[in-house]
Design brief:
single chain; Rossmann fold; UDP-galactose 4-epimerase, domain 1
């Protein structure tokens, strides 16, 4: 039986990844999280975590090298999925130092811990982001792996560092590390600071009478290609189990491209409330935006055979229903 360490297990992607691995493998899963992280996304697994049969939590912080050493020695990983990050681009404009510290130095701490451990030969996935490409001209679409980096936020800059660190450690220390640039991926458990999730949350609040029939939005003209998070975690599993190739880097993404306005209109059409007003909120606008996020994923598809399976409509409907269910519990939520 293999051991897998997932950093950021309490996030949207980490929680779906552990669901996938528990269902499709016999691996023992160790999840790294901070002691005060919300456990909402893995609440359905808490009984299993208490029993420590196939899943255990390890408390630590990427910015604490000692805790990374402990996490590696406890988990004894055959596989490492490095998903933890300060992952909100909008937040990075207000907290650039924390973003750079966590995503660059934190990744270094993790890779250094692995390099100096008995588990240097583990297979490692370093999760960068399509945001590394940033401002891309139309003549470079769809974006392939060799497209020039032009990051448009401190978050994106930090993910350039993450991306380069993964490749550096692979080349310099002969570690089996692959880096991914996942394009927009969403679905149930998506944080409400992201556009399609805040749309879904606001609609759910409007339907329950907790918000006036107005949806507050940012830039609706950004063009993005959407994937389902459940397809994304399946891709990550295939990345580390199908001919893992040290130092390789892959674009991964869905096959439905549209403007953010199209996502909003789809969700409004799904609402039980009609005549919802759309309001531009200046606080939701980024100083600079990566507005053409369309991937060429042929390299990853050719290497693994992966294809997205879940439709855009199913993804967005599931996201809307996720928020409807959360709002119906009576809990309070910020209007963001």
């Amino acid at each position: 039986m293999s051991n897998a360490l997932i950093t950021g297990i309490t996030g949207m992607v980490g929680s779906h990844l552990v669901d996938f691995l528990l269902k499709n493998t016999d691996w023992k899963i160790f999840g790294l999280c901070r002691w005060n992280d919300s456990l909402d996304n893995i609440e359905h697994l808490l009984d299993d975590i208490d029993r420590k049969e196939r899943i255990e939590l390890i408390y630590g912080d990427l910015n604490d090298l000692a805790s990374m050493n402990i996490a590696i020695n406890k988990s004894k990983p055959n596989y490492v999925f490095h998903l933890a990050a300060q992952s909100y681009p909008q937040t990075s404009f207000d907290s650039p130092i924390e973003t750079l510290q966590t995503n660059i130095i934190g990744t270094t701490n993790l890779l250094e811990s692995i390099r100096h451990s008995n588990y240097k030969n583990s297979i490692i996935h370093v999760c960068a982001s399509s945001e590394v490409f940033g401002r891309v001209s139309r003549d470079k679409l769809p974006i392939d792996e060799e497209c020039t980096f032009h990051p448009a936020s401190p978050y994106a800059i930090s993910k350039v560092g993450t991306d380069l660190l993964g490749r550096y450690y692979a080349e310099a220390y002969k570690m089996t590390i692959m880096t991914t640039r996942m394009f927009t991926h969403t679905g149930p458990r998506r944080g409400d600071v992201f556009s399609e999730s805040t749309f879904a949350k606001q609609i759910a609040m409007i339907e329950q009478g907790l918000q006036e029939p107005k949806i507050y939005v940012g830039n609706l003209k950004s063009l993005r290609t959407y994937a389902d998070v459940r397809d994304a975690v399946r891709a990550y599993y295939m990345l580390v189990t199908i001919k893992p190739t040290s130092g390789e880097y892959y674009n991964i993404g869905g096959n439905h491209t549209c403007e953010i306005s199209d996502v909003l209109n789809f969700m409004i059409q799904k609402s039980t409330v009609k005549n919802i007003e759309i309001v531009i909120d200046k606080e939701r606008l980024r100083p600079i935006d990566a507005d053409l996020q369309i991937p060429n994923i042929n390299k990853f598809k050719n290497h693994t055979g992966w294809e997205p399976e879940i439709s855009f409509e199913e993804t967005m409907t599931d996201l809307l229903n996720y928020w409807r269910n959360k709002i119906k519990t009576g809990r309070k939520f910020l209007r963001r």
